Amino acid sequence: MYVSHKLTVRCMRFMLSVFALVLLTGTLFAQNIKVTGKVIDKTNLPLMGVSVMVEGTRTGAATELDGSFSINAPGNAVLVFSAIGMKSERVPINNRIIINLTMEEDALLLDELVVTALGIKRERKALGYAVQDIKSDEILKNKTSNILNSLSGKIAGVNVTQSSGSAGAGAQIIIRGGTSLERDNQPLFVVDGIIYDNSTPIGGNSGFDGATRGATTNSNRIMDINPEDIENMSVLKGPAATALYGSKAAPGVILITTKKGAEGATRVTFSSKLSTSWVNRFPEQQDMYKRGMYNQVGIFSDYTTQSWGDKFSGSNKMYNNIEDFFQSGVVYDNSVNVSGGTKNGTFFLSASRFDQEGIIQETGFSKNTFRFNGDQKFGKFTVGANVAYSSALTDKTLTTDGLWGGGGNGAMTALYGWARSEDITKYLKDDGTKYRMFEGLQPLSSDVENPYWIINKNKMYDENKRLTGSINASFNVTDWFDISYRAGIDTYNKFEYTFIAPGGAVRETYQGGRLSHATTNYEYISSNLMMNFKKKISDFDLNLLIGQSIEDTKVKNDGMHGYNFITPGFYSFGNINNVDKFSQTTLSQRRLMGVYGEFRAAYKSIAYLTVTGRNDWTSTLPKEDWSYFYPSVGGSLVFSELLPKNDVLSFAKIRGSWARVGKDTSPYATSTVLWAPRTFLAGTGVGNNWTRGNPYLMPEITESIEAGLEARFFNGRLGFDFTYYQNESKNQITTPRLGQSTGYILLSVNVGRIVNKGMELSLNAIPVQNKNFTWDMTLNLAGNRGTVSGLLTGQDVLYVTDVQYGNAKAASFNNGVFFGISGSTWRRDDAGKVIMDWNTGMPLSDNLTTKMVGDREATFTGGFNNSFQYKNFNLSFLLDIRVGGDIFNGTDYYMTMAGMSKRSMDRESLTVSGVSLNPATQALEPKTVTYKANESYTIAGVQNYGSDIIRKYWAQYHPLETANYITKTNWLRLRSVYLSYTLPQDIIKKQNIIKGLTVTLQGTNLWLLTNYKGMDPETSVAGSGVIGSSSAGIDYAGVPATAGMSVGLNLTF
Questions:
Q1: How far apart (Å, rounded) are the C-alpha atoms in residues 1040 and 166?
Q2: How many CB atoms lie within 10 A of CB 982?
Q3: What separation in angstroms does the CA of 121 have from each of 126, 127, 235, 237, 485?
């Protein structure tokens, strides 16, 4: 089976290459152009990208940057001109060889086409569900290495969280809350009709080589796409919109359409951008106290890295270690594409190079991309192909504590706790050997590793190589029946390298150095056949689509880990003894087969109905339940067509839909599989996995209802789109813990339910519009509430990550919130007063009892986008809005323990008030205690110095009330600002080389107003993955977010 699979991959790669060559050759040697002309708007500015089609045929062209076009057509034919935002025009040729046209704006956009499931273009007014899209120019206005960031604030109900400010850092995206408690909740990505993997593969794990999700920078794989190649991104939010895609689409679908060639002269476009970035917000730190501490009896010692010592005096130097650690990041981004075509074929070729130097020394991200899209027509038969290749390299560092089992700290955790009285750049002696602050006083394993040692001596990087592509063919059998087929492949190889240098401050066993290699091989192959029937009967337009799909996915992970190099200076596995080396291999395969159908009916331009159904068979479920069916029904009524025409209401529509979709489980969850954990190279056999299989698993099911109202006024100058939805996801596949006597740790079961209810509102307006100036504005608002119920009896909380800081952890709660925070609390009486220890006066805590202490889900989010066009100048900006939602400030928690936070400056005296249990009366009595830092106290017969009492309060007792570090966060940020100038065509025409020139200036995250006291509150400690409720809203010692500016140049030849 493996040989057959491998042969299939090779054959598809060969076929893609052959198709690309045939299509490109056929395109370059086609016929000349007969009809030419130019298309402009009412302000005499040229319109680029206008579709020019010969009516009744598939022959077409598109206008160039200067508005010109050329097309071969019969002299008695009719040309149809269409463009987004413009009224379509039918122009008879009448044997003319030159046709010039002035197009009028269509503010109503009644006939606007949007990309829906399976890449089908439909009129927006016909849809029974909400769809929002974003065009190429809007994507590039906020262009970064990760295209997900371009969606922030621009699509209602879509929440994007940047994982960190590191070079190559990924981002996580959630649409309308989550549908799974323990499964991936990121939407399905489909690029040019092929499902595109956007996971965050991590080779290491806490059980194998000590790497955890939050330990370093990880990229999500959608970053392999060049943003310059994207023509459009369409967001399908609800199950009714995504049902045809099968079991992967329950969390939503993002359709990406890449650029294609157009009939006309060959065009070359070059873009170049130079960017710089800097930390936009540092953690607040105290600037009063030096390293050291006083012990219980008042004796001072500087034998500590913490900052509980004496105050700085005028003769003491204070170092700005945190801010000086970071540098300005630099990005060089260059892209070029060549496109063109004839009436029978088009082509698009692109290449790009992206180089990013991170804000941390020795870190960076680089990427190369190549793409070919082409199609060729042979009468009623059309063939096409697209191929994309990318290679990406991320140089990174260990940012937070992540080497479980081996000790050691990350660069950020050390940096944020480093005393300001010490020069952190001193990590080497003059002779080049390692400098240790407490050399000779403590073992190396007890040291706090210097951040500069970590970034300069250790080495971490990952390299990803990816090939995607498809071949497609369509045949118009008759004017009412066509058939199409598409075969696609998505495959990548990711290699991760980790080297911990000898002499590191880790457990003694590993001080001879550590080396880890991890490889992920991912292969996805798909086949999709569709038949489409359409018929017009009187005032009814009928359409029937039926199809069949097959998907095969294979993932193989290989890991090798070793420690203690034999010969110094030679760092390879060959220089490690066999007993100190471990290997691990995992393999998973999945097949999904489906059949689907869609029936559409339209009555005039008034009423629309859509009914879909799909049945899937999956290899991941037992035979009794591996087949499951999910239907949907939706409709819309354009009731403005039934009202008298007036100058106020231009368009109005109500819509509604119901859908039911399924989601299967991961491979092998139904059976107990074997694995070989941490095996010696000599071999130690295999054993049962930690998780016991369950042969009775059923698919997760999500049912959704959605209703909406759209209206436009004053000929499209003002409009809104309102949506209400409710999603219920049941039969949740979770893995509760088992008793030790079972021989397993986890068991997969169907238990639990998630309900998401929400509303979305999009407002758009054109306040000003005249010959020289246009002002467009859009406001997106959305709110979602996710709740959980039906977990196992006694299971009150469900954790979703392996990270926990200050007793805080991302969690979901039974009969509570989905995006919760678990933590500990101080004990309180019925009146809410803190219960204190009778002797010490310190707050008492049930620190072993986990409670819900926060809800990370925002009350509502939004984006306010404005665009101003004045002649050849364009200025646009996007304000990003968040109201509510808790964030745990773990960075402040850590810095407080180290005596480095702003709040830890309050240490001259301490007053604690509450109630305390009187041992004599056994009753709670009011109690207040006050301690002075420079005084001694006798507590229960033991001497205690005030400074030590205050330090212990901040380091030990204050964190036991997790809510002390939680903020219900609001923000208003300038997400992006963009200014461009396009050289006028009357200047361009004076020469024959350059056809277009635009210069741009762009800013990102330049301003942030928030009540959050930490770093940038947009953070996710566990990276870019979205398993369950993710880790968004947990801020702990991460790489700070960045702001940036860029200058760009776009040239067309």
A1: 8
A2: 18
A3: 11, 11, 13, 16, 17
Nearest partner of 753 among 731, 734, 735, 736, judged by Cα: 731
Angle CA 647–650–655, to nearest 5: 150
DSSP 170-211: -EEEEESS-S-SSSB-SPEEEETTEEE------S--TTTTS-
Amino acid at 781: L
pLDDT, mean over the chain = 88
Q: CA–CA separation, 909 vs 931, rounded Å?
A: 5
Strand positions, DSSP E, 790-859: 797-799, 809-813, 816-817, 820-823, 835-836, 851-855
CB neighbours of 274 closer than 8 A, spacing ≥ 6? 330, 331, 332, 333, 1046, 1047, 1048
Q: In the numeric block, which tokens belong to residue 208?
A: 């194998």
The residue that leads in pLDDT, 11 or 84, is: 84
Output the six-digit token pair for 219: 């990229």
Q: Are strands 649-663 and 674-675 parallel, antiparallel or unpaired?
A: unpaired
Q: Give tens-digit pLDDT for 157-177.
A: 999 988 888 898 888 899 999
Residues 6+ apart with CB under 8 A from 916: 835, 836, 837, 838, 841, 924, 925, 927
Q: 416 near 894, Cβ under 8 Å?
A: yes
Under DSSP, is residue 560 helix (H, G, I), strand (E, B) or coil? strand
- Asked whether the predicted pLDDT for residue 349 surpasses 70, the reply is yes
How many CA within 13 A on the CB side of residue 1026? Answer: 26
In sequence order, the β-bridge partners of residue 4 are none
Burial 391-406 (b: 16+ CB within 10 A, else e): bbbbbbbbbbbbbbeb
Residues 845, 964: Cα–Cα separation, whole Å: 13
Count of Cβ atoms closer than 10 Å to residue 914 Cβ: 21
- DSSP, collapsed to helix, strand or coil, labels residue 502 as coil
Is the pLDDT at 827 greater than 60? The verdict is: yes
Give just the sign of the alpha carbon dihedral 106, 111, 115, 116: positive
Is residue 931 predicted with pLDDT exceeding 70?
Answer: yes
pLDDT tens by residue, 26-81: 444 334 467 899 998 877 778 877 889 888 777 778 888 778 888 888 888 899 99
**Tally of residues, the chain:** 1053
542 vs 848: which has the higher pLDDT: 542
Residue type, 151: L
The DSSP bridge partners found for residue 35 are 71
- Report the alpha-carbon distance of residue 891 to residue 1042 in Å, rounded: 17
| Start-end of H helices in 887-936 | 890-897
- In order of their start, the domains of the chain are 131-281+328-819+856-892+971-1010+1013-1052 (2.40.170.20)
Candidates 559, 596, 595, 561; CA nearest to 578 is 561
Query: What are the E-state strand segments in 342-480?
Result: 345-357, 364-378, 381-396, 459-478
DSSP one-letter code for 124: G
Q: How far is 47 from 66, CA to CA, in rounded Å? A: 7
For residue 1022, give Cα distances in angstroms to 5, 28, 960, 1025, 1033: 34, 49, 22, 7, 10
In one letter, which amino acid is 263? Answer: E
Q: Say which DSSP state 435 is in.
A: P
Nearest alpha-carbon partner for 356 in 348, 368, 365: 365
The pLDDT of residue 211 is 42
SS3 402: coil
> For residue range 182-232, what is the model confidence (pLDDT) as tens digits?
888 889 999 999 999 988 755 444 333 344 445 677 788 899 999 999 999
pTM of the model: 0.88
Reply yes or no on whether the pLDDT at 391 is more than 60.
Answer: yes
Q: What are phi and psi of 1014, to 5 degrees?
A: -95, -150
Taking a C-beta distance cutoff of 8 angstroms, is the pair 847, 960 a contact? yes
Q: Where are the beta strands (DSSP E) in 259-344?
A: 264-279, 293-294, 300-301, 329-341
Cα 555 to Cα 518: distance, rounded to the nearest angstrom: 13
CA–CA distance, 959 with 850 (Å, rounded to integer): 14
- Separation CA 847–CA 960 (nearest Å): 6
